[in-house]
Amino acid sequence: MKRLLVALAVLSAFAAQAQDLPPPPGIPAAGTPVSFHAKAAAPKRILEQKLPGLGLMPGDKQATKANVVRVSSDRNEIIYVSAEYPNRIATPYADPKVIDDDKAVVKAVGQSVYVTPKSDAPITLFVSGPSPNDPVVSLTLVPKNLPSQTIILQLDEPLAAVGAKPEEEAPSDNVYTDRIRYVMRQIALGKTPEGFAEGALPRAVARMDQLMVVPEVRYSGSSYDVYRYRVENVSDATVEMDEQAFASDGVRAVAIFPNAILEKGQSTSVFVMADKAATGGK
Predict the structure, then answer these.
(1) What DSSP line would sit under the chain, residue for residue?
(2) Can you tell me the distance from the alpha carbon of 251 to that of 115, in angstroms, rounded to the nearest whole number?
(3) pLDDT tens per residue, the chain (282 residues)?
(4) Is the backbone peptide bond immediately before 202 cis, with ω within 30 degrees of 0?
(5) What's the rounded Cα separation, in Å, for the pair 226 and 228?
(6) Burial letters 158-170, b for 16+ CB under 10 A, else e
(7) What are phi and psi of 79, to 5 degrees?
(8) Residue 125's closest CA among 114, 137, 135?
(9) Which residues contact 245 (CB under 8 A, 6 or more apart)?
(10) What distance in Å separates the CA atoms of residue 267 and residue 257, rounded to the nearest whole number?
(11) Residue span of the signal peptide, if any (predicted)?
(12) Sign of the dihedral through C-alpha 171, 172, 177, 179
């Protein structure tokens, strides 16, 4: 399908080059002997991700960062949690309903579910929403010797009610262009559109000539995702923006809000809608 660029403003085209966060301290100088058996095991890194319009972004080095899990009603996800402390599971439901096997203390508060294991035995958890037709998410929680974990569930299928009920209903005729405009407008206004779940992105930055781009949030839908980037002018010159800078294979639409022209130190948001195939999603 031919790619559609929905421009709310303009962004100048620059070549993006991803930059990792500063390397960890303590790296020995060249030629310094290293006793490998005395080194503690490094924490496991969050996997790097390919982001539309930016390319491959380095993974996050924080071991305690929230774990974003892409879920669907047709599969079970195995997740490691703390065996000793409460764990928070952030759901896309405004009022989550939980069924468990009584191997943990489970409490729903707002859109989150808090789970404290009673033993080291795996915990079976089913999470759904208040509506009878809401997707049911199946989880297997495996207690480990870990600090408290925060797990963010990101649905890979349409959802009737994500968070609070949207004030604006999706177009009933499901016209392609109208649907794109509706989704982009909802996200630009700080809302989560129907059928989308919010999730975090890698803590990395991309440098696009005079601009610094920071990935912030991914809104995951059934067939495509929307990515929100914060873009800041780090030069002394005024930059006029062009949406073509974020056009790449699989990108359906690009929108910039609220500013298209950035003075020194000013920032704005860029919203990129892309097929899941563009980032390796399913």
Answers:
(1) -------SS-B-----EEEPPPPPS-PPPTT----GGGSPPPPPPPPPEEETTTEEEPPP--TTS-EEEEE-TTSEEEEEEESSS-EEEE-SBSS-EEEE-SSEEEEEETTEEEEEESSSS-EEEEEE-SSTTSPPEEEEEEEES----EEEEEESS--S--BSPPSSPPPTT--HHHHHHHHHHHHHTT---TT-EEEE--S-EEEETTEEEEEEEEEE-SSEEEEEEEEEE-SSS-EEB-GGGG--TTEEEEEEES-SEE-TT-EEEEEEEEEGGGGT--
(2) 38
(3) 444 444 433 333 333 333 444 444 444 444 444 333 333 444 444 455 667 766 666 654 444 456 878 888 888 999 999 999 999 998 878 788 999 999 999 999 988 899 999 999 999 999 998 888 788 999 999 999 999 998 988 776 544 334 434 444 555 555 778 888 888 888 888 888 877 777 767 667 888 888 999 888 888 776 788 999 999 999 999 999 888 888 888 888 998 988 889 999 999 999 999 887 666 554
(4) no
(5) 7
(6) ebebbbeebeeee
(7) -130, 135
(8) 137
(9) 11, 12, 13, 14, 16, 53, 208
(10) 10
(11) 1-18
(12) positive
Does this model's pTM top 0.90? My answer is no
Residue matched to tokens 């962004």? 11
